[in-house]
Every structure is written in C-alpha cells, then in structure tokens.
Amino acid sequence: MPEIRGGFHEVPASSVPELLAEAARRDVPLFTLSTGGRTDKEAFFRAVRESLPLDPPLSVTRHVWDALADSLWNGLHDLDAPRVVVVWPDAGSVAEAHGDYAIALDILRDLPTSLADPRYDRGRRTELSVYVASAS
User: Fold this and answer.
1) Mode of pairing for the β-strands spanning 83-91 and 7-11
2) How far apart are CA 12 and CA 55, in angstroms?
3) Measured between alpha carbons, how far is 131 from 19 in angstroms, rounded to an integer?
4) Rounded-to-integer distance, Cα 15 and Cα 59, Å
5) What is the pLDDT of residues 13-30, one digit of tens each?
6) Distance, CA of 36 to CA of 12 (rounded, Å)
7) What's the pLDDT at 51?
8) What is the model's pLDDT at position 122?
9) Three-state secondary-structure class, residue 76
10) Which of the 8 DSSP states describes residue 133?
C-alpha cells in the first residue's frame, strides 16, 4: 500500500486505485477531480465545482484563478478534518505543463503548504495530500 503523505505528488496512473483504497482504509476525506484527460481552464473549473468543497461557491460563468484558490482553501479548511486527500487521476504530465494546466497545478501545489501554515490555519491545521496522475 502506498503511504498517504502531505504535499503535492505526481504519480503513475496505475497507483491511483491503491491510493484510493489507502485513503478509504484510513477514513480520510477523499475527493477525486476528473477532467476526462483535459487540462484546459474550463474543464478544470467544472471538475473543481463538481467534486471539491468550495467556500464560497464558484461562478459558472467567470473563471478567476485567485477566486478558485481562495474558495478551495476555505472549502478544504472548513471540512475540519486533520487530513484530506485530493486525487486527479486523469491529468497529464506535470513536467509538460504549460498555460492553464500549469496554473491549475500551481494552485494544487500551493494548497498543501498554505493549509498547513500556522499563519493562515486559524488554529486548525489541515494536512492536504494532492496526487496528480498522468492520463492513461
């Protein structure tokens, strides 16, 4: 079984079922972000709205990266869970990221650090594990 570790991780798609099973075994809140292999802004925002906790909710007509980052941070923090796992099983290669995909990855890369930062955690730390798998 893979170890659930806080932070941002690129993993092979073949390891996703084991990650999902380990999160379930540990009873860790788990969110699966699916974009159907697409890495454009519209697909990412849609997938986030459909699968992740957001506070405040995101507009369906305006796609603003800063609003997304803030909404995700608050939504994940407000779960009041010490540990949370987000898996993006059908993403592309992190090394080849550019444009909107690179921005989306930057947001996912920053969330584990900012959720665990005592300057911002409002007295309640959230260990976030983000797993991004290459599309099959």
Assistant:
1) unpaired
2) 31
3) 9
4) 33
5) 999 999 999 999 999 999
6) 16
7) 97
8) 79
9) helix
10) E
3-state secondary structure at position 3:
coil
How far, in Å, CA of 65 to CA of 73, rounded? 12
pTM above 0.85, yes or no: yes
Residues of the chain scoring pLDDT < 70: 1, 135-136
Instruction: Compute the distance between CA of residue 127 and CA of residue 77 in angstroms, rounded to an integer.
Output: 9
Residue 80: count other Cβ atoms within 10 Å of its Cβ: 8
Contacts 24+ apart (CB under 8 A), 29-34: 29/79, 29/81, 29/83, 29/84, 29/85, 30/84, 30/85, 30/86, 30/87, 31/84, 31/85, 31/86, 31/87, 32/86, 32/87, 32/88, 32/89, 33/86, 33/87, 33/88, 34/88, 34/89, 34/90
CA distance to 69, 99, 130, per residue, from 96 (Å): 22, 10, 18
